[in-house]
Amino acid sequence: MGDSLKKAPSPLLSLAPVLVLVGLLFMVVKIFGSDTLNGASQVVLLTSTAVCALLSMIFYCMRWKDIERAIINNITNVAPALLILLLIGALSGTWMISGIIPTLIYYGMKIISPDFYLASTCVICAVVSVMTGSSWTTVATIGIALSGIGLAQGFSPGWIGGAIISGAYFGDKVSPLSDTTVLASAVTDTPLFVHIRYMMITTIPSVAIALIIYIIAGLSHEMVSTEGVAVFSETLKNTFTISPWLLIVPAIMMALIVKRVPPLITLFISFLLAGILSLFFQPQLLSEIAGTGISGTQAQVKGLLTSIYGSTQLETGHAALNDLVSTRGMAGMMNTIWLIICAMCFGGAMTATGMLGSIISVFIRFMKNTAGLVSFTVFSGLFFNVCAGDQYLSIILTGDMYKEIYRKKGYESRLLSRATEDGTTVTSPLIPWNTCGMTQATVLGVSTLTYLPYSFFNLISPLMSIMIAVTRYKIKKTIKT
Predict the structure, then answer these.
(1) What is the pTM of this model?
(2) d(CA 11, CA 203)
């Protein structure tokens, strides 16, 4: 160990792999757009890992064996998160096909009224995003439907887009099914439900302020039509068996979360119960998923298993609803898992070579108190969203960069995980060249800069994180032995 690293690398040299990463990511985002996560980002991460290792071996006599050991340890640390992601894929598939999510959407739409369209849009998108764990799915499905309704009622595209984005990213930030939520907790070594509960301190005030603004704006606007909602609801009802009995599964899941049952057990029980209910409530859909050449119980079992591990697509007669009810299962999580593994390689190499520590040493002198530390964390997340162009990479880079600082200063890891999400997850759709910003603007048909001023939840969350840090509310240091 003693001869593995002769001296700490200089901050200037330590920045080289980061600059390579940012430069290559900027290039692939420009080339591949929203398809960057399908492989290009992973290749960039591995290339940057190689640059890091090569520089340390040439200039500081670092042994490859030590770098490899750190990479393996990094991947091992996120293994539980990878399993959770697989279960999330299974859960999203079974909750959709069983009719749980369609039932939630169906009843949720009942709250839409002419005077409260913007607030209702935000709430519905939040509910769907919490239950699916995906802002992209929410925006691309129910978001499009709500957008059409809003335009018909005379709302401007900016207000409509802002309400949709605010609701969608509320769920993306706090849902136990969200890969960004799981990733932030895993990177910072924070238990998932501890992370979610602690985020509520900044998240609830932020969304409450946003809803107040949307209510005021809605009350001052003249509404003219709710016909689009009726068509969407009727199509849902014709496709799925809508029943309040299906809401038993979300209720059980919430009870398990409150009881602090481990996430793996909670997710497994939830998708298992949903799968069982699908056999009773949606047998015709399972048979449709199974395809021709098979019938009866075998078709239903095949359809159920397919919804758990693979992609499904149902024809409802409504284009937006077709997208909403399509699922990806476990297989749909593989790109995210692949990205995490490659990111752990980069993080492990940067840590083992001392480069990450060298970079941190430059910033740590400016972090005199809690507010300063959280502020730097939040702005670093925003910085990586701007430079790296992807929220997943921003979460990983921010968490890795500050993890040791928080530990040395005696702060709980949940403070880092919260500040990381407040600075990365919610700001990603506000940046035009970020994968989230590009995707949402394309899907909604509204430019990022058009909906940005009205995405109040996304704008308020980072500021709320800093404000809470200034007051030191519920912030305490770990006990040192």
Answers:
(1) 0.70
(2) 35
